[in-house]
Structure formats: structure tokens, C-alpha cells
């Protein structure tokens, strides 16, 4: 079996988390099969149902690793629908409005801490990287110049390899063996989480530690990766940690903030954490909010957004304050983000440059599509052949070696010398240059990629020679592509910006010769446009990327050029393939719900989409039956129904829907031996018994029920959700999709017109229908659903 | 009867637009009354239902004008739910994916034009105001100096009054007699529209013209009002006009963009228009997007937001381009918005200033709450006593006179002189000052309020004398309060900013004496904080206001001070009353849905909230019956049901729900004589017959049906929405609220557990339950619903 290591490398104990698609033991299904029901059978005349039946058969086929059109059954959904059971009503009645005010205060406090702690971690990462890189590159620069004289250039080369491999080795061992979900930038994982998919362990403290240490290792190791993407993941994990008042990693429960222990509340905090992460990374509080909304929120809520914005502003302020203090500029607040492009005030543009920006964007889109396509092939290769942790570590070390080699060869072969003085680098390295000169390429390689991007934006014209830029673009393009997806913790923002800035600067040289108004051709401006185009071509983000770049450049008037560039990049790239994050999400088979239902799908009905038959429970149900049902099926939600009735002239084979109960609720009930209760004793049970177990409920195998207990019965009515949203079997796919997406549902029972449950629609049933756009064509495809991915 | 003129001054021909609350003719109700139904009767034991019944009785009471807790029955909802009928499916099948691509292209084009045309109108308004004000104030300045020498200062005073009254008279006649919905800033109206309430005539071309001309008149007339708020309304109207390809005002139909003729599509464009308006007004494209989202969108959609952002960026670019050209700075792009606070780069702040900002915010919140409370009392006075158009015109002229008088008295009495040279004004007026000096107050009064705000922000310290600022704050505070709500077209952003900037600058003088680090006390910085605090105290906007101010000051690093100030202002203000827009919305009884359902309302059930009995139709219905039903009821949506059946042992008195059909659809069917059709002839009918009439369908009285035709029957099935969202009668209020709000519904049929319709919930039924927060207390109130408001 092939394993997708892109999102969830080890899926231990996820085996019984499979969702509704698995066939369940027919003994425990107390509803009839489809064939007996005249409600549905009329629909079979519909040809599209037949095609759907055919596609269900296809699911039995084996799935090739690396396929983009298969959904995995192993991901669970988060549930954003409030369970309005008796316990909630009881709690509401007891707590009153004072509790609401306290809850609001708690929320603001938590968001404050999310902002502050995210920023402090960012500072720690930044200071560590800065210190270690100074040591490393200072040492290397000295060594190169010493050994050049002796003609023993292989010595610093070996040192360089060593300095790259050691941190990369540490970082990749951490990721490959200790916490595989900390690999990469973490943005796809956070995106999936905010979309409503539970990615195991994605916001745990262990992941946070692996991520933070890992990112220092890989940046110090000189990999073509940045620390900005991981900051978003760090922020998300911080938020989840603080808001829950408990930690599974440390096995401690502070018993505070228990009322935030539900998916909906946690998601809100995680949105804030992601925004605070962006804000700390780029000094872009508004961009952070927009990122969080663009990637996550489906339902815009004014007060939530205001709180997210607060966390973002606190984050950038804290970072600024601490870093300014550290760099000896106390109170000057010069460091709004980890990555700061510097102030671009001097630039202006004219109307007739807009087509040029669009061309740059289109070029970036082309390059981005190529990058994505290579990276996709690489990811498939990794899935097939590089599954073992030690192989992953080896690959990371190989990339670290290749990075040093590429840098060394460029410095050695391209003797690009510039006079000292207008020196933009900390460690001017002479190599083979004459006295009073320094090697430009060495200065690019002997600093962090962030500093290189800044140089390319702000260096005066003619600092860089055309050949150096050209080879640099090619080398860095492939290096960054090879690096993304390694078992190390690093992002792709900075390497993409660097590649783009380099080719933007390169193309500006060409423009200088053909363009009428030479005053406007500032290479730094075109480096910025190139950087935006390249990054836009890779990730295909829209409004948030524009605003992030506007904020990092501290230039609002550059909005139109950026929007034109990013639009052209997105449209060009989308012609060939999806954004890189989406490719990785698809590779891992996550049932991701897009913003809108697929177009022209009003002729697909609930009866074709739903899973059936379903396993349902009675209002008062036998404990042994429940335990067996939980063991034998992998469903996560069970309709609670009246028993089917037998009338004189009407035979119902399905029961009327009375409520919906979750697997996790049933397990908590059985675990706490809450059965044979009368309505008098309900008042002793409160919602906290469910919250104490959140979010990792015990599995059914952990239940210890005696044979006596199995004969008891449990009244499910006080715990179930008594009025779940339902739709008729004749509802169309877009109708279900909008309901599901807008309200963040996990289960949508499908009823017939006697209000009897005949099927269930979950996230996977809807995510299966996906729009594809390719080379100007458009359509809807039906994905396969498989356990094998 | 008292009439609310704040939102909809004349409600001609709205008489039969009343919604479900009106009692309908019992002859045409084919469902039984509540008493007969055992489904519901069990609920009556519930004490909260009894209290709800009691409150329904209260509705018969007469409502006092100016009450804030009454909803009017006269507003209709917009419908954002797609009607998935046969015609839609048929159209989808015929058009295919090429049509989807064409539709997307059309959308981008429309958003481009929305941005451009909004900006061009803004330029036109700006240039007109600029030209006329230069003439006016140049003339006045000369006259004052001439007549001071002769000792006949009453002459320029009379001229001043004249110059104020003439434009204000024109503007207020236009608004009071020609198009009353153009009064005020238009923001509350746009806010209601985006929330899903149909405000009659709010986005018509006639309104656009009245607004544009009116705003020029009132600003030239010297009223304490700005042109920025109206720009948002202008943008919204432009968007509605362009996207529909037809104009009711001009009675022309271009027959383009017909597929955008539905509430949902139109709302999307109007969001874009509002954003483009903000963007043009403040040069704040990101702020515009956030404004549009904060005030309108309930469901965040990535691609829509991206288009809105595009329109905003195009708008600020076009404005910048045209104004730069007009002011002779071609290509320099110095005018990103109508209102530009200038660049604030020089400011920095320290951590220990944050509490000071919070205090400023709290003070602004106090002043804002006072302002709102006075303006509310004034609005009630206007509703009671100033209903006649001529009285409204008189009041506007009185305010114009008072404005001139106040200015004149201040110039005359406070002889605040400064030496020329550091002169920040165009028309230095000497009055009683010595030679080489000018009167500071005359320079404030003899320019537009925008220019005065800029002076207060950027004038060097000690330009303004404490007494002048003090009197100016008092005078302008009351003048702006009196002006808002007049029958003229102007906004409150600029006067609030001006008041706030003046007291901010005033307080900074005090701070200068008590504060340790005097270098930080730049009066301009505190003027900015004061301006933000005052505006925030009035309108209580959050993220969008912060971003708008960040963008107009072109300073991203000032985010934290602004957020602290605005948060303090909002919290302080909310302690006393609501934001001014909300007060005006409540005054007019608009059923506005807030972001979240009221807290602790899970014990209110659908069966108490719904309207019943309901009027329903059969699948194939008699034409005469439909016509009569439309005449006798004022419902806008009718459930289509199976006839009730009589079984051996089960008597159903309600019919099973088969679909939902709208009044407008029925009228179009009857008007086009679409009856007695067989399924063969359906293919001749397409969805365009409904679109051609959108959005102003004929009334039922316009139908001309012969007696013969009344005996025909019409098959409603191809036109009705066959699977409307429904909930059970046991669903809670929050559950219905979330469904309704997230999906933008207009009608929510309530069914029993046999799927029979027993009631209907509309916007008013949900908006009736409102949270109140007052002086730290919190609760839920049930509003009255009345026809009399």
C-alpha cells in the first residue's frame, strides 16, 4: 500500500477513523436496503444515477499512488454545527448572560496571548537563525578568502557541505522520525484544518516544537526554503494550544476554557493563530486576516474578524518591539515582520507599464506551472520510493550537499566582481576578485535568502551581472523545487520570491533597451513584480497575497500593478494546473470543499450522492447493541429514529428521524457508564463530560463493558442533536453543498417526504464532485473514494 | 400615522408589499388553524410559547413614532436562494460550460466598469465642489477684508448666508421633493440592502443623480457634512445600474446581462460598488473590500472578494489618474482618494502611549454616544413634526444660515491671528488682524472641511490657539449633529473627523504639559487619534474603519494605536447606545439581521417563531383562485402542497410540501397567460420571462384576466422551487437563524414530522429577537411588529 507522506506521513491509529464510505456489517443495519423502497426506485430511471452507480463500482479498483483524483477515506470532518441537546439547554439556563460576557472576555484574552506568543516564538526563531547564520557565513567567508590564496578551495567547500548537512540532518531526523506532520510549510495542513478536515496531530504542541526547531535547522542548513510559511503553522498550533487549556502531549488539563472545547470555537482560534503567524512573518496584519479568511472561513463573522485582526496587530507589534530591542533599536519599531521588503516609496509607474506587468505575471504563471508540475512528479516519486524515514533523511542531506555544491560552483565559475563600497552584504568575500572588489555571487549565497531578496529589490541598477542572474535563476528554481516536499520544515515563499526577483531584475535589463521611458525602469521595481509573479504562479493566492506584498513593501499605491501581475499569473498558471498547495492537498486525498458547488450540477440529486444504507439507533437503545455497532461500523454519526411502524395500508421501512448522535458522544456515554438513567438523574450530567475528552475520544476498543451492562439501555434523547439540518432526497447537489459548506456540517441526513432517514451525506460525498479547468476547458469530474490512499 | 423619513421618506405604492405578518382573508387559507393540530398543541404547554402569544397580542397596540424596538411590516426581503426549477435545469442543459466561462468574463468586465464609472463620478463631484468652493471662498475672503476696512462686516455675512442657502436650497428641494431616499449618507440604506432588505428605490439611477448633485450642493453650501459617505451609495447605485443592463428610470432594456437579474447576483455587484465607492472616497481599496464584507456579505466567497478588490483597485487608480491629470500632475498619481489625510511617516509612538490612546478612544466613545443620543432625539423630532417636504427644505436652509452665523461669530469674536508665511490656506483672510497676519479661524471656515482636517493633522505645533480650538469643537460638534439627518445628501465621516481632530489637537496641548517624553507629542498625531476616536464613537465600525484610516494615512505601522483607540471608542460607546447607523436603521423599523443569533435562545422553537396559518397552493391550481389569493393576502411566498389526505386512521390537515413559489413568479405566470400548458409546451418557456420583469414586477391589480381564463388551471411544478430548505417545528431559533442568515433565505417553511407545512418563518420573525447590551447588562428583547411605522 502506498502511503501519502505529504500531509500525514504516519497514520497510526487512524485505522478505525474511516468514514461513511466503508461497507458496514449488515447485521447491524436496521434499515432496509435501497431495492425495497419505492421512494428511491423511481430515481433509477434517471441516467445520471446509473452513471453514479457505475462510478461506485469503480471505487473497487486499485488506486495508483500519486493520483490526483482520489479521495482518501481516512480523513474525518470537523463539526461546526452546535449540538443543541438537553445538556446545552440546561447549561444555558444555569449560566445566564453573565457567562456570555465572561466568555467574550476570555476570547479577547486568548486572542491577545495568541498574538503575543506567536510573535515571541517568531522572535526566537529569527534570533536563532540570525545568530547561527552569522557564525556560519562569517566563518565560510573568511575560510574561502584564506584558502583561495592557498589554492585549496576544496577545504571551504567541504566545510560548507558540513555546515549544511549537520543542521539539515538534525531537522530532518526530527521531522522524519519524531513528528512527520511538521514537514513542509504547514500551509496545506492549516488550510485543510480551516476548511473543516481533521488532519491528525496538526495543531499539537509536539508539532509546534518540531516545526520551530526544524525551521531553524533548515534555514541555517542553507536549504532553499523560508521560515515564513512555517510561522503560519506555528501560529495555528499556538492558538489551538492556548485556547483549549489542556495539552495531550503533556497530558495536563488546566480545566480552564472548557467551554471552548468544541470544533467551532477551536477553529475560530486557529484562524486567529494563522493570521497572527502571517502577521509575524510578513509584518502584514491585514494580509494575515485576509489570508485566514481566504483559506479558511466560510462564514464571515464581524466580531470574529475583529478579534483575528486584534491578534494580528498584537503579533506584529510584539515582534517589532522585541526585535527592535534585540537589534539595539529600542522603541524605533523598525521590524514589523520577520521578512521585510523595505520601503518602496521611490517607485512610480505609468499606465502603459500595466501590460508589461501583465506579461511579467503571465511569465510567472508559466514558470509557476512548470515548477508545480515538476514538484508534483517529485512528490509522486517520493510517495512511491522514499517512504522509509532514513531515506527521507538521506534525501534532505543530499539536497543540502547539492545546495552547497551549486553555490560553490557558481562562485567558482562565474567570477562576478564588483568594487567594494556600495557593498550591500555583511560578509564581502573576495574569492578570485581583485583587491577592493568582492564576489557578488558569494555575497548572495553567504546570507539568508531573505537578505538576498532585499538586495535584489534595493540594490542600485547594474549591481548584478546578467550572466550571474541567469544562472542563479536556473539553479534556484530547481533547488527550491527539489527542496519543497522534503522531510524538513520550511516554506516556499522566500525561495519563490528570490527566484522571481532574480528573473524580474534580469528581464528589467532587457526592458531597459527596448522601452521608451527609461526613467521608470528601476530594476528593483521589476524585481518586485517578478517576485510577485513567481510566487503567484506557484500558490495562486489572490487578495491575501496582494495585501501581504502591499504591506511588506509598505506601499499602498502599488496595488494596481500587483493585482494585474497576480491576476495574470493566476490565470496563466490555472490554464495548466492547480496551485501547489492544492496539488499537495489533492495528492493526499483530503476531501477539501471548494467555495462554490460545481457549476451545472443541479441535475445531480441527493439520492445519488448519499451513502446508504445507514445504521440508525432507537431513542432508547440497548448498550450492547451500541457497543457492537461502534465496533462493526466506522460511521461517525448515527441517526436516532422511531422504530418503523406497520400501519394498515402503509408500511414504513425507515424510521422517522428524531435526532443525530455522534460516535464520540456514544463512546463517552458508554465509557462513563451513563445508562439506565431516569429523567431525574439527567441533571447530574453536564456537558463537561464530553469536553474533558475533546478532541481525542477513546476508541471503542477501550470500552470495558460487563455482560450485565450490555443488557442495560441508554436513553439517547438528552444527548443527541434533536433537530439536525436535513434535506429531501430530491434536493440537488448545489443545494446540499451550500448548506454543508455555509454551516460547516459533518453529517447531513437525507430524508424522504415522510421525514424518514434514507441516507447520509458527508463531506466526502460532496467533495467527490470537483470542477476541473484545464487548457480553457471546464467540466465536473467524479473522484474515486478509496481506502488505499 | 407617523412616517419614518430616515430611510424611506415616501412609501408610495409600497402598500401591497407588506409581508407575512398581515392577517389574510380566511377564505383563501386552505390549511387549518392552530387549534386543530395535535402537532403544535403539545407545545402550548410550553410557557415561552404563551409569552410569545402574549407578545403577538401586543402588536395590536399603537406604536409611538421614534420607537427603537418596532419592526415595520413594509420592508421586503431579498432572496438569495436559487430557485432550482425546471426552467433553470433546462437552461443549464442547453447552455453548458461555455456559458459559465462567458458569465465569468462578463462579471470581470462589469466589475471593471463599476470601478471606473464610480471613480469618474467621484471625480466629477470633486471637481465641481472644488471649482465652486474656490469661487465662493475666494469671493468671501476678499469681501470680508474689503468690508472690514469700511466697518460693514454685515455685508459679507449676508453674502455668506446667501452663498450657503442657495446651494442648500437646491440640494434639499432635490432630495425632499424628487428623490427622498437620496437623503443622508446612504450608508444605512446600503447596509440594509447588503443585509438582504429591499429598500425601495435605493439603487436606482434617479437616486444616483439626486445623490451626486445633492452632495455637491450641500458641500458647496458649507454644511457640516462630507462627500465620502454618499460616494458609497453612488458606487452601489452604479453597480446595480451597470449589472442589470436595464433602467427603470429611463424605461430602457438593453437585453444584456439578463442572467444577472436575480437578487443574489445583483447583491454581489452592489457589494463591489460599495467597495469601489469607499475606495474612491478614501483611496482605500483594501478598506473598501473590508467595508463591503463587514457591512454586507454573510457568506465569504473567495472569487467574489477578489473581484470586489479588483473593482476597488480600478476605482482608486482611475480617480488618481483623472484627478492627477486635472490638477496638472499628469502621471504622478498623487490623489488616491477624494479624501487624503496626507502621509504620516514622521510619526512614531512608544509602548507607554498606548494607554493614552485608549483614553482618547474612551473619550471619543463618550462624545460619540452623546452625539448619537442627541441625533436620535432630533430624528424623532423630525419624524413627529417635520414631515412635510417644505418644512424639511426650511430646516436645511436654517442649518445653512446657522452654519454661516456660527462661523461668522467665531471669526468676529475670537481674533486668532497668526503671521502669514507658514500659511496653510488658499485664502488668507486678514479680518481684524494686523498687517502680515491672517485670521486662523477664517482660514478654517473658508475652505472645505476636508482641507481643514488636513490642516489640523499637518500644521506645525502652535498653529492653533487653545480657545479657538475649544469653541470650534463645541460649535462643530453640534452643527454636525444637527446636519446629519437633514433632507440633504451628505455624510458624517468628515465632520466627525474634523471635530475629533480639533479636540485631539486640543488635548495634545494638555498632554504636552504633563507628559514626560515631549518629543512624541506631535499635535498632528493626537489629532489623528482624536479623529479616529470621534468617528469610531459615532459609527462603531471596527476592522474596516481601522484599515480605511491606515490606508488614507498611508501608514501601516500605526495599526496598533488605531486599533486600541477604536476598540476603546467602540466599547465605551456601546455601553450607552448603538452606532448611529444602527440607530437610524432601528428607527425606520428595518428587519436587520445581525451576525449571530441572540445568545441563550436555544429554548425558543420554530413553532413559536413561525407565522401561521399559511396560505398554500396545489401542484396544479386554478387561475382564478391564485389571482384572488394574491389580491387578498400580502404573502410573498406560497408553499405548494399535495392536497391533504384522509386515510383510514390518519387524518392530515396539512398538505405535504412539494415546493415553494413566489408571488412574483405567480404574477409573471398569470400576466403572460401561461396556463393550461402541457408538458410539451414547457420547452417554449424560458427563465427570461421572469428576468425581463426583475426587479419590479407588476402588482396583482395590473393583471387582466377574463372570466374564462379564471377557470383555467396552471401547473406550478415547472416554476416552483422543488426543494426549499425547511426545518422541523422543533428547531431552535439559533438553528433557524444560522440557516437563514448564512444562505440568505427569504422564506423558511416549517414542517411537522410528516413533512407537512405548518408555518412559515421570514426575516421579520427572526429579526424580532434582538440582543440588547446596555450599561453592562445584556439580554434578549422581542420587538413589536407593526404596520404603523
UniProtKB/TrEMBL annotation, chains A, B:
Superkingdom of this protein's organism: Eukaryota
Chain residue ranges for the region called Disordered: 1-24
SUPFAM superfamilies in the record: CBS-domain pair (SSF54631), Clc chloride channel (SSF81340)
Signal peptide: none
Membrane topology of the entry: Multi-pass membrane protein
Location(s), subcellular: Membrane
TM region positions: 108-129, 157-178, 208-226, 269-292, 304-327, 347-372, 393-414, 466-485, 492-515
Domain CBS, first and last residues per copy: 720-778
Keywords tagged on the record: CBS domain, Chloride, Ion transport, Membrane, Repeat, Transmembrane, Transmembrane helix, Transport
Ranges of Acidic residues composition bias in the record: 11-22
Similarity comment: Belongs to the chloride channel (TC 2.A.49) family.
Protein name (record): Chloride channel protein
Source organism per UniProt: Nicrophorus vespilloides (Boreal carrion beetle)
Gene giving rise to this polypeptide: LOC108557780
